[in-house]
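B., you asked whether I could sanity-check this one before it goes into the benchmark set. Here's the sequence:
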Amino acid sequence: MSQIQHHAKTGKRRAKPGGSKVFSTVSWLVALACLLPMVAVLFAALSGGTDTLTHLISTVLPSYTLTTFVLVCLVAVGTFAVGVGAAWLVTMTRFPGVRFLEVVLVLPLAFPAYVLAYAYTFILDHPGIVQTTLRDVTGWGPRDYWFPEIRSVPGAALMLVLVLYPYVYLLARAAFLQQSAGAFHAARALGNTFWQAFWRVSLPMARPAIATGVLLAIMETIADFGTVSYFGVQTFATGIYTSWFSLGDRVGAAQLALCLLGFALTLSVLERTTRGKARYHQAGKQHNRVPPLDLSRGGAVIAWLACALPVLLGFLLPVIILFNMGLSSEQDLLSRRYVRFLQNSVTLAGVAALVTVCAAVSIGFYLRLRPGRLSASAAYSARLGYAVPGGVIAVGLMVPFAAFDNALDAWMRATFDVRTGLLVTGSIWLLVGAYMVRFLAAALGAYEGGQSTVHSNMDAAARSLGQTPMGMLRRVHLPILTPSLMTAMLIVFVDVMKELPATLIMRPFNYDTLAVQAYRLASDERLEGAAVPSLVILAVGLLPVILICRQVGRR
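And here's what the prediction gave me:
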């Protein structure tokens, strides 16, 4: 017994030094890299003085603020109505096809909003099939009728609602499924109808999950660039890109990025506050769910149509439109040019996924090895990147590294008469760093979800056998966490394939991806050509959505 205790003590002494310090160093380097864009944007904005800011306030800032605010409000209301309504129908009622609809309601999550915008513009714009058919049938001229303008703030909001409502749907559905029947039956016993009990009991109890889903949709809305840029909607995201490239105003871009950063961080704090304080006690046993309501024939038809409409508009119809557009386009997916686009996209996404997951493992394992304020601060800093739009991250990384490259080039010319040019700015590695900052929170969440299944007794057993922290990670944690790590890599891979603003601003010269090619063709009004890369992006985006659908189907 004493030998075993001595061996355990020796193993603990071996496990402490070296390994944990490595994870601590890597974690804080990653955390500082995530904080760098925000700090750089702040300094760049403040160093520009008040002249540029005064000019922005007197010209474009009010319109950017108003348009962004209106867009956020429309998306918040739309995602709440569609997501909560669909989640309630598939969990609280029973009608034919409910199991099928419960799964396929997740499918629109595979679409980037800008791809949906290309598809609907193709059929709803003035030369599109809908208005052309309307003029042919009625004999009207172009000015004889009114038709909703798809290239507008409501049109952009509709595109975003159709692809972002699954965030609210998934969280609201999970909240409804976890509610016990005790409080619901108590409300019914007090004379409330089924619908009244839902509004007064079930919906308030699900409010934290619903609020989190809506706030996630809002953060994706303010980060969107492709949809609002194509529709000509002037938001902070389009203003940053215009200031940086079209006007060459780096200070103006930084100050706009600071405004957007402040809005995004406010939403992030609001999301964490809502999730942290709004808690409800679930009365009764968790498995005693609220019994679903059997709908009448008319009610079943209405419920089926209400659940099928978001899937039809957000997935099925756009796929058909894009496929028909791609068939009539002149784009050859097997040409050398498109193979290069695909190679660039896969290379960037693969490298970024690997780097991001490695960073997530370092931070998550450090938090497990040394739980406390220091490790928790590193993890919190790493998660902030998800609340920062891609355009802000791009500006925040380009400003300091461009200054570094210019200073290094000036010093090398003065000292050795050698021009170094831009070593870091415009490189693939800086772009990969931007992706890591943007999507590290998603990878960290997937890793920590799997890490919770590794019991602390396994760590104690590994230490007692003399394993260092690195050995414990390699021999115990990683084999168990392989499915979670693969999921994290898949999520980051798909997100990078869809990311547009950071790629547009930071990509190396003549290094285009499928997303950039789709955006360029759509900007030139070559929508049929834009359908081909859009379909490839959609096909890749379906992979994690299929995994989510499998989990939903298993309840």
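One thing to flag: The mean pLDDT is 83. Otherwise nothing jumped out at me.
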